[in-house]
From TrEMBL:
<keyword id="KW-0808">Transferase</keyword>
<dbReference type="GO" id="GO:0005524">
    <property type="term" value="F:ATP binding"/>
</dbReference>
<keyword id="KW-0547">Nucleotide-binding</keyword>
<dbReference type="InterPro" id="IPR036206">
    <property type="entry name" value="ThiamineP_synth_sf"/>
</dbReference>
<dbReference type="GO" id="GO:0005737">
    <property type="term" value="C:cytoplasm"/>
</dbReference>
<dbReference type="InterPro" id="IPR000417">
    <property type="entry name" value="Hyethyz_kinase"/>
</dbReference>
<dbReference type="InterPro" id="IPR034291">
    <property type="entry name" value="TMP_synthase"/>
</dbReference>
<comment type="pathway">
    <text>Cofactor biosynthesis; thiamine diphosphate biosynthesis; thiamine phosphate from 4-amino-2-methyl-5-diphosphomethylpyrimidine and 4-methyl-5-(2-phosphoethyl)-thiazole: step 1/1.</text>
</comment>
<comment type="pathway">
    <text>Cofactor biosynthesis; thiamine diphosphate biosynthesis; 4-methyl-5-(2-phosphoethyl)-thiazole from 5-(2-hydroxyethyl)-4-methylthiazole: step 1/1.</text>
</comment>
<dbReference type="GO" id="GO:0000287">
    <property type="term" value="F:magnesium ion binding"/>
</dbReference>
<keyword id="KW-0418">Kinase</keyword>
<dbReference type="InterPro" id="IPR022998">
    <property type="entry name" value="ThiamineP_synth_TenI"/>
</dbReference>
<dbReference type="Pfam" id="PF02581">
    <property type="entry name" value="TMP-TENI"/>
</dbReference>
<keyword id="KW-0479">Metal-binding</keyword>
<feature type="domain" description="Thiamine phosphate synthase/TenI">
    <location>
        <begin position="8"/>
        <end position="210"/>
    </location>
</feature>
<dbReference type="GO" id="GO:0004417">
    <property type="term" value="F:hydroxyethylthiazole kinase activity"/>
</dbReference>
<dbReference type="InterPro" id="IPR013785">
    <property type="entry name" value="Aldolase_TIM"/>
</dbReference>
Length: 530
């Protein structure tokens, strides 16, 4: 029986069953809900009891045509006629298991980092690797530090890159993510494991308590199986042309003028007023709220959340995490502006925490900020400003979009936008934008206004990146193009009013944003799909 590639994988734990429920009942129901592999894991049973349970589950799994895997105990697997085992790092080696069980059909191995994962996949004998723990878990007493979905993605990327170097006929190993996964965090895990070339997840989900401890294991399995299905069936849509993009921007512009959304800003104290005025000029409704207590209520009605790191404190980080969590579970877009992230170790480490916790839809920053996010030391930052640029900005935005699985916007004299596949170059704008504080922050507000429109039009406008559609609920690539065009084209119109300096320029800029038409955007757009 071949293993499914990204399976819903149940690991048993009798101690976690609700009172009165037998393991057989639980597994039976879980199989009806869509579980595709069952692993029998018994840490406290004696050998005879273990074998008896294994035989019972083997019968149930055979009837459902689902593979049963025995954790750790090759002797039990041999005795019950099961030819699949799963091994931890301190269990028997793969080589020893192959010697004991030459007829093994499937060997799985647990891994916590790139080195353990690559060692496991170097041999033809391993067909599945379980990577974890992804989140903190109570199901394993000796569990290592939680990896989080971003580290999981990096391990999978490294593993797949390593597989490509293998000259043997090794097939691609199946991967499952394990540790603290449940219906509320599963989509984030799958989002981060999506392969950019196929649009499908590279990993399945292994769960213990989310199914075993549920009073309704069939429904619990079914909801996880439905989430997985979203990440298997999404086809990748075509790369948009310049004409497609501009047509999308026009639709977003018209929609936002008709009914602008609510833009919840968690932003810095320097630009609050300016961003609220920019939102109003674009017919959106701003609300600057810093209370975690109301983040849930706001999330239910908002069009887009803006998270801006400008004057970060531990208190504001708490609000960002709480609002981000709500926005993610309500599938609302989030625009993240990592202002000055490279300026201090404090900002860098808090940003890492935030990105582990919240899936952004769009990240917008100058070169210094984006270089800090991607760990590129070649671009320097000066506080909140950038003191240089990328040697290859096209590659920089594409790579960061792939790393963070979202749309990335690089601002500067030339702006670049990528969803990880397509890169768009925008050359509108005027130098005065660099002479007023917070023009980048206000650009984040412009992008949020178009992202809100994209979210509300998500049923009619399909995203180019399937996984972005899950988190932004709409075409975030076109929204980013719309937001940048709005700011830079309005700035060009403002300059034509001949402002005396940065202060009058700011006034003209708000007026130009207020009077901006879709025709202005299309006629002036200097946009190129690279
Ligand atoms: N020299 C320039 N010529 C044209 N457009 C520019 C220039 N400098 C900035 N812009 C535009 O200004 C907007 C803000 O980008 P910028 O890179 O200045 O943000 P930032 O550094 O994050 O700003 P801040 O920290 O003040 O908020 C972008 O839309 C960008 O296109
Ligand atoms: C100057 C400044 N300092 C923190 S945020 C901010 C606004 C521009 O990013």
């Amino acid at each position: 029986m071949a293993l499914p590639r990204s399976p819903l994988y149940l690991v048993t734990q009798r101690e976690a069953l609700p009172p009165g429920v037998s393991l057989e009942q639980c597994v039976q129901e879980a199989l009806q809900g869509g579980v595709e592999i069952v692993q029998l894991r018994e840490k406290h049973a004696d050998s005879r009891e273990f074998l008896e349970i294994a035989r019972g589950l083997q019968t149930i799994c055979d009837a459902a045509e689902v593979p049963l895997v025995i954790n750790d105990r090759v002797d039990i697997a041999l005795a019950c006629g099961c030819r699949a085992v799963h091994l931890g790092q301190s269990d028997l080696s793969v080589k020893d298991v192959c010697a004991l069980m030459p007829t093994a059909k499937s060997i799985g191995v647990s891994a916590h980092d790139v080195s353990e994962a690559t060692v496991a996949c170097a041999t033809d004998d391993v067909s599945l690797i379980g990577i974890g723990p992804i989140y903190a878990t109570t199901s394993k007493s000796d569990a290592k530090e939680a990896l989080g979905p971003r580290k999981l993605a990096r391990i999978i990327d490294a593993l797949r890159a390593y597989e490509r170097t293998l000259s043997s006929a090794n097939g691609r190993v199946s991967i499952v993510a394990i540790g603290g996964i449940n219906a509320s965090n599963a989509a984030r895990v799958l989002h981060m494991t999506c392969n950019f070339d196929t649009g499908e997840t590279e990993a399945g989900l292994a769960v213990i308590s989310a199914i075993v401890s549920s009073p309704r294991p069939r429904e619990a399995a079914q909801s996880l199986s439905d989430i997985l299905a979203d990440y298997r069936s999404e086809g990748r849509s075509h790369k948009p042309s310049r004409e497609d993009l501009l047509a999308n921007v026009v639709r977003l512009h018209d929609s936002s003028r008709e009914s602008g959304g609510l833009l919840h800003h968690i932003t810095n104290t320097v630009v609050q007023n300016q961003c609220a005025n920019v939102a109003l000029a674009l017919r959106a409704s701003p609300i600057m709220s810093m209370s975690p207590e109301e983040a849930g209520d706001l999330s239910a009605i908002l069009g887009c959340l803006v998270i801006n790191l400008g004057t970060l404190t531990d208190d504001s980080l708490r609000v960002m995490k709480e609002a981000g969590r709500h926005a993610n579970s309500n599938k609302k877009p989030i625009v993240f502006d990592p202002v000055g992230v490279g300026a201090s170790a404090f900002r860098q480490s808090k940003t890492d925490q935030l990105l582990d916790h919240v899936q952004m839809s769009i990240i917008k920053g100058n070169a210094g900020e984006l270089a800090a996010l991607s760990g590129d030391k070649s671009v320097r930052a000066r506080g909140v400003d950038s003191a240089g640029g990328f040697a290859d900005p096209v590659k920089a935005v594409r790579d960061l979009a792939r790393q963070e699985r979202c749309v990335v916007v690089l601002t500067g004299q030339i702006d670049y936008i990528s969803d990880g596949m397509t890169v768009i170059k925008l050359s509108n704008g005027v130098p005065h934008l660099g002479n007023i504080t917070g023009s980048g922050c206000a650009t984040g507000t412009c992008i949020a206004a178009y992202a809100s429109a994209a979210h509300s039009m998500s049923t009619t406008m399909r995203a180019t990146v399937p996984q972005a559609s899950i988190w932004g609920g709409g075409d975030m690539l076109s929204a980013a193009v719309g937001g940048i065009l709005a700011m830079t084209v309005a700035a060009e119109i403002a300059m034509e009013k001949q402002p005396g300096g940065p202060s009058t320029f700011t006034g003209h800029l708000i007026d130009a944003l207020y009077n901006l038409t879709a025709q202005n955007l299309v006629e002036r757009a200097r946009v190129e799909v690279v």
